[in-house]
Design brief:
The structure is a single chain. The chain has about 260 residues and is mainly alpha-helical. It has six helices and seven strands; from the N terminus they run ααααααβββββββ. Strands 1-2-5 form a three-stranded antiparallel beta sheet. It has a two-stranded antiparallel sheet with strand order 3-4. A two-stranded antiparallel sheet has the order 6-7. α1 crosses α2. The chain is elongated. The protein starts with 15 loop residues before the first helix and ends in a 32-residue tail after the last strand. About 30% of the residues are buried.
């Protein structure tokens, strides 16, 4: 019998070397794909948060300017308590400050008493009253400060003196969710849905999303609105009143609305 030369025999299957090469290529592709997915998971939420916050900040700035311009021009009521005679320029400066506090409260207490002898907006007062928070019990309310800020921000954008057109529904679940108040009621607040976090007052309560901090003094600059997300590290990293960064410097990366 005549046998075929070894060089002309048909081979079926792969050699060990070929299999190893194929496996190496597959492993490399998996590694590259996994890295891309992980990178997207890290940057995707940050990008979405920045976009959401910048959109909110633009709307807030427009409303802020309207209130600021009006308060700078209108006649100061004789009932205003400003600490200076009405002819003194410092009286006007204080009046503007109190009008901004009236329109953009950062706490439930400020809703009822914005200062300067001014009354809180009736729409804001009625909104808080619907959740059982009144002028009589607000001093003992245990709602976490960041939740109060988030609820006040949503309230100002939705029910403020200038109609922004923003509603919880228009912001979607990534921008507005119902937050837990101190009396266990739930109220709509502006949030970063990528930063669910424990309540600062009651750690046993986990808010469904990270409430956005809201201040009228950003980075120590008076009469400058600011919004801040806790970010993925679940830390705000700023003083709640001045918004000046504290020890958690990483959180400064999340201060996107104040970026140039």
């Amino acid at each position: 019998m005549i046998s075929m030369p070894a060089s002309k025999r048909k081979r079926f299957g792969f050699t060990i070397v070929e299999l190893l090469v194929v496996i190496s290529i597959i492993v490399l592709l998996i590694t590259l794909t996994t890295g891309a997915i992980m990178k997207f998971r890290d940057t995707g939420p940050r990008t979405a948060t920045r976009s959401q916050l910048k959109s909110l900040k633009i709307t807030l700035d427009n409303q802020w300017k309207a209130v600021l311009d009006k308060a700078s021009r209108e006649t100061i009521p004789a009932t205003a308590i400003l600490g200076f005679p009405l002819s003194d320029p410092r009286a006007r400066a204080n009046y503007v400050s109190f009008k901004l506090a009236q329109a953009f409260p950062t706490s439930f207490q400020e809703v009822f008493t914005p200062g300067g002898g001014l009354s809180g907006y009736s729409s804001y007062v009625a909104h808080l009253n619907s959740f059982g928070i009144t002028a009589a019990n607000v001093a003992t309310d245990t709602t976490a400060p960041e939740v109060q800020m988030a609820v006040c921000l949503m309230m100002a954008l939705e029910r403020g003196p200038s109609n922004s057109g923003l509603t919880p529904e228009s912001l979607g679940t990534t921008g507005a969710q119902q937050l837990i108040l101190g009396n266990s009621q739930r109220a709509w607040g502006c949030v970063d849905a990528f930063a669910a976090r424990p309540d600062t007052v009651n750690p046993a309560v986990t808010q469904p999303a990270g409430p956005l901090l809201f201040t009228r003094t950003a980075g120590g600059v008076p009469l400058t609105p600011g919004i801040l997300s806790a970010g993925g590290d679940m830390m705000y990293g700023v003083d709640f009143v001045t918004f000046i960064p504290t020890n958690n410097l990483q959180a400064r990366d999340n201060l996107s609305p104040l970026d140039p």
